[in-house]
Every structure is written in C-alpha cells, then in structure tokens.
Design a protein that fits this description.
- This protein has 173 residues and is mainly alpha-helical.
- It has one domain.
- It has five helices and two strands, in the order E-H-H-E-H-H-H.
- The longest helix has 29 residues.
Length: 173
C-alpha cells in the first residue's frame, strides 16, 4: 500500500500550549497581503528610476516567474483539496490532515512561496530596484503573522508528526 503523504489529527482542539496571538496573527489572508504589497511596489516603482532592461527580457523573466509561482501555489491548493483539509489561512486549527506529499515534500508553504514568486515577477516587470523590497517584506510579514501561528496550531494538532515533517522539509525552499 502506498503512503498518502498525510497524517490525521491526533489531538483535535488542544491548543493549551499556544501563546496568545498578536493582533495581526491570521487576520489578513495572504492573497490580500500579496495585493497590498503589489500595490505598494507599484507606488514605489513610480517614484524611482527604473532599471535598464530590454522589454523582451524583462517581460519574459517576469512571465516565467509568475507562471512558476501560480503553478506552485496551485499544486499546494490541490494537495490540500485531495487531503480534504482546509485551505482557509485564517483557520489553521481546522486542519484535518497534515499534507506531506506532492509539492509539500519540497516546501512547507507552497501557496506562500507561489505568491512570493508572483511578487518577484511583478518586481521584475516593474524593473525598479525599490520594487524588490516587496517580496522581502512579504516574506517577513507572512513568516511572523501567518506561518508562525499556523505552525503553532499544526504542532498542537499533529504533534510528533508535524515535528518530524518540520525537521525534514524547509519552510520556504
């Protein structure tokens, strides 16, 4: 029998070890954070000189990264759907399965990695040095206010299975 690449909930509802949440923890869905960061990148790009880059190279590089980002993010969503677990980033405590197969063998956060690649593509398209701050700020925000609370919830739900997974697979890449 082939392993499914997922673990089931061993300790549902036990969040006694969770620290109190920060006001921004799990409040703004990552796609909204992505749109806000993208808008800020656009505003910054309009205030600074762009980098000289041939249009074909700039658009090609941006398109390649955007396609890769969307593909990685969709692979993450498909993995969650197949496992019949929640995709809602505001409710990690509703997770019913720990997905460790597919794209989750390479990154614990393919959906966020995909969004970050889309922001990197946007920065390339804008061709402004200041726009490249966007993906960095996205990672910092998502790590603190999304991933950390999610990992706390997953640790409480899946215990040793999540600890083993965390030890084997990187958070991003």
């Amino acid at each position: 029998m082939r392993p499914t690449g997922r673990a089931t909930c061993t300790n549902p509802g036990d969040f006694s070890q969770q620290p109190s949440l920060h006001a921004l923890d799990l409040k703004i869905p990552p796609p909204i954070v992505t749109l806000l960061v993208a808008a800020a990148m656009w505003a910054l790009a309009r205030t600074s000189a762009g980098m000289e880059m041939p249009t074909l190279v700039r658009v090609g590089a941006a398109l390649a990264r955007a396609i890769a980002g969307v593909g990685i993010a969709m692979a993450g969503v498909i993995g969650f759907r197949r496992a019949r677990t929640t995709v809602n980033p505001k409710k990690p405590n509703a997770a019913s399965s720990l997905v460790t197969g597919g794209v989750y063998r390479f990154t614990r956060n393919p959906m966020y990695l995909g969004l970050c690649l889309v922001l990197l593509a946007w920065a390339l398209f804008l061709s402004s040095p200041l726009a490249f701050l966007g993906p960095v700020l996205f990672i910092l925000y998502i790590n603190r206010f999304q991933v950390a609370p999610e990992e706390t919830a997953l640790s409480a739900i899946f215990g040793e299975a999540f600890a083993d997974y965390k030890a084997k697979v990187r958070r991003w890449i």
